[in-house]
Design goal:
Elements lengths: L11 H4 L6 E6 L11 E6 L4 E7 L5 E8 L2 E7 L3 H4 L16 E7 L2 H15 L4 H5 L3 E3 L1 H5 L5 H13 L4 E4 L28 H10 L3 E6 L3 E3 L15 E2 L2 E2 L5 E3 L5 H18 L3 E4 L12
Helix pairs in contact: 6-7
């Protein structure tokens, strides 16, 4: 969208004086681009220039343009007390590093701004061998099995993926449950014996035999409300609100500050690699933890 500041409520250009109007976009929670991308531009038509910014954070964020003293001010932040009820008390001598952000200015318009931002993003990107090799990955979810994998269904698709030259084959959601509703049953990550009568290893070994690396879908940071693990562990494993486990669409967010949580999830990943030769994990994230845990 493109709007003038007047269209967004500023009266500076009408009365040539300051107002209390604030033009603001924010995001709350762990879906940092669930509603808006954390970036924007501000055009100066008289100067033929464009100011642009992005917030580099996977949690809550806020930006706002405001006028005061007949001057324009741009505020770019991560989570804060006013917008997100988030704060951190610092003891004497303690330090806190704020959320990183990028701010730039170019002569020109959107094309010049996005070109500069793209160059910057390439410079800050973490070096990653996979980004250079660009392996071909087949995933069985979209327009395919839709979280309903079985040995019978997988084998012919594996053949087809191999024939197309795919290098990785990923079994998506549903491999760990007998239920049709795979969403609230995650957490123990034990393959379904109903879906894979001879074991999941039969399928992953077949993937290997076709020259591809087997992969599995995970949402390692959640436990479903219908998962037996919920009844086996302490409530401190999960995000909480008002003394109760925070329910996110039938999912409970694990609190990774808990050493038992870290040990458990590492154990899951180690087991899947060891038992099934998994060489690729598709790590999904389907829930927003909003303001987070009260602890």
């Amino acid at each position: 969208k493109e709007n003038s500041l007047s269209q967004l409520g500023s009266n500076y250009f009408v009365h040539n004086t300051s107002s209390s109007k604030r033009i603001q976009i924010r995001s709350i929670g762990s879906w940092s681009s669930g509603e808006y991308a954390p970036m924007a531009c501000l055009r100066n038509k008289s100067k033929g220039a464009m100011t642009f910014w992005q917030i580099e954070h996977n949690g809550s964020w806020n930006w706002e343009i405001l006028e005061h003293g007949c001057k324009w001010h741009l505020v770019i932040t991560g989570p804060n007390d006013t917008e997100h009820h988030w704060y951190k008390e610092l003891a004497p001598g303690a330090r806190f590093t704020s959320v990183p952000a990028a701010l730039g200015m170019v002569e020109g318009g959107e094309d010049e701004a996005f070109s500069a931002l793209n160059q910057y993003r390439r410079r800050i990107r973490r070096a990653n061998r996979d980004n250079e090799n660009l392996p071909i990955i087949f995933n069985d979810y979209m327009n395919c099995l839709w979280a309903d994998p079985t040995t019978e269904k997988e084998l012919p698709i594996i053949d087809a993926a191999a024939a197309l030259g795919c290098e990785y084959y990923c079994i998506d959601a549903g491999w760990y449950t007998d239920e049709e509703d795979w969403f609230p049953t995650i957490g123990e990550w034990i393959p379904s014996e109903t879906r894979f009568p001879n074991g999941l290893k039969e399928v992953t070994d077949y993937i290997r035999s076709k020259g591809m690396i087997p992969g599995l879908w995970l949402e390692i940071e959640f436990v479903g409300s219908k998962c037996a693990l919920v009844q086996k562990v302490d409530k401190s494993w999960f995000f909480q609100k008002h003394g109760k486990i925070l329910d996110l669409r039938g999912r409970y967010q694990l609190d990774f500050r808990n050493p038992e949580v870290r040990a458990y999830t590492r154990g899951v990943v180690d087991r899947l690699i060891r038992d099934f030769g998994i060489g690729y994990f598709k790590v999904d994230y389907n829930c927003n933890c909003y303001a987070g845990t009260e602890w």
